[in-house]
Amino acid sequence: MTDTPPPKAFIDVDECHALHKDGLLSKEAYTRALLLIEDRPDESEWKDFISLSLLVLGAGLTVSGIIYFFAYNWASLHRFAKFGITQGLIAACIAAAAILGIDRLSGKVSMLIGAILIGPMIGVMGQVYQTGSDPYNLFLWWAILSLGWVGISRLSYAWLFWLLIVNATLMLFLPQALNIKPGTALFSLPCIALNLLAYVLWSSAQQRMTWLKTPLEWVPRLILMWLITLGFWETCLLVAGSRSTDYVRLVGVIVFVLGSAGGFYYFMRKQTRDMSVLTMFLIGIIAVSVTFVFNASGKNVFRRDFALIFFQLGTVVLLESIVGAHILRRISRS
Question: What residues does each domain of the chain span?
Answer without folding.
Answer: 9-39, 42-158, 180-334
